[in-house]
Description:
mainly alpha, two-stranded antiparallel sheet, 6% strand
Amino acid sequence: MNALVPLPVLLPLLAAGSELVLGTRYPRAQRIVGVVVLTAVLGLSLTLLVAADSRGPLVMHLGDFAPPLGITLVADRLSALMLTVSAAVTLCVLVYSVSQGMADREEQSPLAVFHPAYMVLVAGVSCTFLAGDLVNLYVGFEIMLVASFVLLTLGGTAARLRAGATYVLVSLVSSMVFFTAVALTYAAAGTVNLAQLAVRLAELPIGVRTLLEATLLTVFAVKAAVFPLAAWLPDSYPTTPAPVTAVFAGLLTKVGVYCVLRTETLLFPGNRLGDLLLVAALASLVVGVLGAVAQTDLKRVLSFVLISHIGYMIFGIGIGTRAGLGGAIVYVVHHITVQTALFLVAGLIERRTGTTELTRVGGLAAAVPALGALFLLPALNLAGIPPMSGFIGKLELLRAGVADAGVLAYVLVGAASLTSLLTLYVMAKVWNLAFWRAAPAGAAERGTVLEEPDTDDSGPDPDADDVVRRPAPAGQAVTATLSGRAITVTTTTDRLPRTMTWATAALVLLSLAYTVLGDPFTAVTGRAADELLERSPYIEAVLGQ
């Protein structure tokens, strides 16, 4: 069974190489390879989850080199659960993007880059979850960075290049800090293997441990978009195509949360910086949801809600108890699925109306009832309406905060409750503007292709009503212009592609399955939290003690 551990990393990398070879000559084969490989990764991840839950952590020392010399990959309950959820989400997003035809638009480039870059991104995510040492954790982040820049800048528009430049700049700075933290850790402890560090860091002076912990937390807080290190996110994600935005917002930020969970429990037990995490959680909850209230573009609304709800996860980690960690794990799994589904719905809205600006859309509940249902269910789940999984996660976190009985914990309980209410208000506002009210004057009619006029380097004015509209057959691919470039687009239509709709529906159903299977779901997350706090199963499995 241990031999299966590297496969969630190796298979996507092999698929990326195969898709590069296939290139633009065999686009259908390229897509088939991606879907088959991610389906296999999902099956492998489920197998690892069952095995890790029943037998304990699974360990693979690549090349049979024992720590600290070799590369160690570890699949315990937490990492296997994260692998399973990420595989399900990335598979649904890939199916959605294939239907949308995103890769087809890139066939004019030397290589059809979307599918290989996407596979590399999946490999980086899997490497991060399975990494048993800080160096390979760093490598996983760098793999994700390379793939992310390609995906963020697909299409080469000015807005996407600016967003990609911002993302890469922030990521490079955080990577430099991460590399420095790895070097400092090795200098202080003589190893970067996580299991060995769990033993050796306890022998270091308290000041050195605190410095290493604070440095690593800073890096992971940037990756997780924890306020005040989240300013890059609202401007980076909304400019990208819907599938890219969905997987970035739903999954990549949770990689940072996973790293905070892992290091705070395995390397730095005792919750010395718990109060700092609680303050960061409070700021994220409040600032993020207030930012969402002020937005009128759906993608920006969801981006600010994302920042806000990262605060729930950091809240549980900051509490540091079994209930707090269990609630945080529940909320991570829930949020990956729900947030991804909502961004895919935003892509369907954009396809139907030509925009995600809420002041320009309306009447979607009557025009496309299925789209209304696909938005309403995850929106209510995100707001924490009982008995959905969002409510389950929030209830566990609130119970943990009350049980902690600290002043700061009580403040977080109040802030978390207020944030949940404001999230419901934001989702209700989106529903009222986009779905319930009648379509406003000037909304794109069925069979309208939208074109942007040429702009200067400062980009188009989002408030300007200078979008060119011309009639075209509904749902047909036509040629339009964007920033002076000829591109192929599909006109607005009330007949959404079935595959895109079903891929989104699959994620919505998965989020509802967490509710239907609430008892076994919370039992698994509770056992994962126990394993994190106990630490010894992980250490003994890696070191062979």
